[in-house]
Amino acid sequence: MKLFAFFFVISTVLSIAYSAQYTNCGSESGTFTKISVSDCGEKEARCILKRGTNATVTIEFTSNNDIENEVSAVCHGKVGGMFVPFKLPNQNACVDSGLECPLEKGKVYRYEASFPVLKIYPKLDVEVKYELKNSKKVDIICVLIPVKIV
Questions:
Q1: pTM beyond 0.90
Q2: Running DSSP on this structure, what letter comes out for residue 14?
Q3: Closest listed residue to residue 132, CA positions, set 124, 123, 142
Q4: Which residue intervals of the chain are DSSP H helices?
Q5: 24-60: pLDDT as tens digits
Q6: Integer Rg of the chain from CA
Q7: Which pLDDT belongs to residue 94?
């Protein structure tokens, strides 16, 4: 029995240590409940993004406030200590992303967007900062996603 408990604890610690951890980086008007990135395995410390392909991010969240019709998506990568902008093909989060704007307080939303991982991107580990912002440029949702570009 003690041996079983030991292996259970070790396997739990390892699964936590080696799964990609999404971090809240300043969500002010919403609370995210689920983040997923295409091809991001549960056992990986970082989500693997392959250059020359498209990646999809899905964010499920609850709005903490009523938010007007303008919601924008913003993405940055932390390279050399600085956040460098990644251009998203669709920055209007109210169009073709699953959101129904205006956002209502207490309602659960599912945002989904695809973006290219360009071949010109260098192969490196990077923290991706993905944000949904209101018209005043205040974060509704802000999440850090550990990524490895290959």
A1: no
A2: H
A3: 142
A4: 2-17
A5: 999 999 999 999 999 887 778 899 999 999 999 999 9
A6: 17
A7: 95
Alpha-carbon gap, residue 59 to 57, rounded angstroms: 7
Would you state the structure tokens that stand for residue 16, as one six-digit string? 């936590």
List own/partner pairs for 16-24 with CB under 8 A and 24 or more apart.
17/45, 18/43, 18/44, 18/45, 19/43, 19/44, 19/45, 20/44, 20/45, 20/46, 20/47, 20/145, 20/146, 21/146, 22/143, 22/144, 22/145, 23/143, 23/144, 24/142, 24/143, 24/144
Q: Can you tell me the distance from the alpha carbon of 29 to that of 27, in angstroms, rounded to the nearest whole number?
A: 6
Task: Report the run of H or E that residue 61 belongs to, with start and end.
Answer: strand 53-63
Tokens of 148: 């490895």
Alpha helix segments (H runs only) across 1-140:
2-17
Helical spans, DSSP H, in 100-150: none
Assess contact for 75 and 129: CB atoms under 8 A.
Answer: yes
Could you give the count of Cα atoms lying within 13 Å of 18 in the half-sphere of its Cβ? 10
Task: Tokens 């919601």: give the residue.
Answer: 71
Q: State both tokens at 141.
A: 């949702």
* Residues 6+ away with beta carbon under 8 Å from 135: 68, 70
Tens-place pLDDT, residues 104-131:
999 999 999 999 999 998 999 999 999 9
